[in-house]
Amino acid sequence: MLSNREVCRPKQMKMSQVENLQYLRGFGSEFSSEDPRCPGALPKGQNSPQKCPYGLYAEQLSGSAFTAPRSDNRRTWLYRIRPSVGHKLYGQFPKGNVVHDWTECEPNPNQMRWKPFDLPSYGESVDFVEGLNTVCGAGDPKLKVGLAIHIYSCNVPMKNRGFYNADGDFLIVPQVGTLKITTEFGRLEIQPNEIVVIQQGMRFNVNVTGPSRGYILEIFGRHFVLPDLGPIGANGLANPRDFLTPVAWYEDRDEIYEIVSKYQGKLFVCEQDHSPFDVVAWHGNYVPYKYNLENFMVINSVSFDHCDPSIFTVLSCQSDQKGTAIADFVIFPPRWSVQEHTFRPPYYHRNCMSEFMGLILGQYEAKRDGFNPGGATLHSIMTPHGPDVKCFEQASNEELVPFRVADGTQAFMFESCLGLAVTKWGAKVCQKLDPDYFKCWQGLKKHFKEPEFV
Ligand SMILES: [Fe+2]
Questions:
Q1: Three-state SS for 82?
Q2: Taking residues 352-375, what's their average pLDDT?
Q3: How does the average pLDDT of the chain come out, rounded?
Q4: I need a surface site. Which of 56, 268, 281, 445 has the fewest CB within 10 A?
């Protein structure tokens, strides 16, 4: 467990961009934070005093069952100007495009590749919530098992609108544009090549200054953890100290605010007469956090053969089956390639897992053409895939000296043990599905030569 009081600035950000935002370091830690405008706002020695300091209300946000084992128990106490219950009735959110109906389309085992998803067109005003569309998914938030993969595409701030997901956690992967995110816990800013996890129930607002696009992995009813490291040891891959949680920040604004809720796969909205971002102080271990993918410590083969991609797992959401993930978030970061007598790109394979890939920047090493930043691929359970013809021919014949791979690029994968179903939006409405994807493997030549005397 790391110090919960260590305050830092992320090294990759310029001060002019971050408005002096500060963060707490650590993963799964017990944190506590007070907005410096109200010193002593956290009650001393108890969670729910008869009267809280400064006349605040105490409210607990539970991210696990009260009785979950201590190692899995997640909760935070919020000390706020008004409790979050002070809102009017929910009604349907008219601009919601989120879908959890996995029977919209017939099953399709083909390899799928999407061209870059559209940014809002000129003259359109779309905020983060309005610009959410579901590509594929599986399971049911009512049963707390499953996931959904969404694309967001927006170009204006959410203004007086807060959003929370009652169904699960969002892992957000920006690809275009910086997101300035205000949460009940404080403010974060993330840029492409960083990720942010906003967990079930946490209210947040996204501010953008121009066209913005990215990917979202949503998991139902469970939370992300760091993968076990086994023989790697105590350090490596994503180190806990590089995860950053915001410090408490509040606004006391008596204005009409919309609260949008994603509940059982649909969006609802209600009004309240004040900002939901009125938490003056908080303590607990159920928090939003961000992570810069540049900080990932890459482990790989230094002798021969290509390691399985699990070696690049940043975060994992485990199923009840040992070592099997509802969802892994895996990246393919810049690194050295040094293996001897080895076909170095990813090997051809068929997998009992579903693999959804996206590209944040650059070119993916196994497919130079057709898979572009802002696009995606889906290789479903047991559907064969691997390097395209060009990549195979090149990698089979190149001189195996040490060289850098993936510099200036960042591809990632959402891998799941569940069978993912594509929505109508993903299959048709977005109009980005590339019908020619399968052709990239059609020219694979036969190199087999029988021995002369058999
Ligand atoms: Fe694969």
A1: coil
A2: 88
A3: 93
A4: 445
Task: Find, among 102, 312, 124, 330, the residue nearest to 215 by Cα.
Answer: 330
Ligand 1 centroid distance, CA of 242 (Å): 28
Q: Who has greater pLDDT, 32 or 452?
A: 32
Q: What is the pLDDT of residue 260?
A: 98
Contact by Cβ (8 Å): 156, 128: no
Cα end-to-end span (Å), the chain? 64
Average pLDDT over residues 211-229: 97
Q: What Cα–Cα distance (Å) separates residue 349 from each residue in 306, 383, 396?
A: 12, 8, 17
Q: Is the pLDDT of residue 4 over 60?
A: no
Q: Which residues pair with 60 in a beta bridge?
A: 77
On whether 294 is known to bind a ligand per the annotation, the reply is no
Task: Tell how many helices (H) and how many strands (E) occur in the chain.
Answer: 3, 29
150 among annotated binding-site residues: no
Question: Are the beta carbons of 172 and 195 closer than 8 angstroms?
Answer: yes
Structure-token pair, residue 410: 């960042």
Amino acid at 368: R
In which band, very low, low, confident or very high, does the pLDDT at 307 lie, cut at 50, 70 and 90? very high
- 368 by DSSP, 3-state: which? coil
Enter the pTM of the model.
Answer: 0.94
Structure-block tokens of residue 273: 């007469």
- Please tell me the distance from the alpha carbon of residue 136 to that of residue 100, in angstroms, as a whole number: 8
Catalytic (active-site) positions: 306
How many angstroms does the Cα of residue 347 sit away from the middle of ligand 1? 8
Instruction: State in Å: Cα 13 to ligand 1 middle.
Output: 33
The verdict on whether residue 274 carries a ligand-binding annotation is no
367/386 Cα distance (integer angstroms): 9
Give the Cα-Cα-Cα angle 428, 434, 439 (nearest 5 degrees).
145
Given a cut of 80, is residue 19 above it in pLDDT?
A: no
| Residue 389 backbone class (left: φ over 0; alpha: ψ -120 to 50; beta: rest) | alpha
Tokens for 77, please give them: 């106490």
Q: What is the DSSP string of 196-226?
A: EEE-TT--EEEE-SS-EEEEEEEEES---BP
Domains of the chain: 4-102+118-293 (2.60.120.10), 296-434 (2.60.120.10)
Task: Calculate how far, in angstroms, residue 416's C-alpha sits from the geometric centre of ligand 1.
Answer: 11
> In this structure, what DSSP letter does residue 30 have?
-
**pLDDT score of 12:** 42
pLDDT per position as a tens digit, 417-447: 999 999 999 999 999 999 999 999 999 999 9
**Residue pointed to by tokens 């079930």:** 200
The pair of three-digit structure tokens given for residue 28, joined into one six-digit string: 């799964």
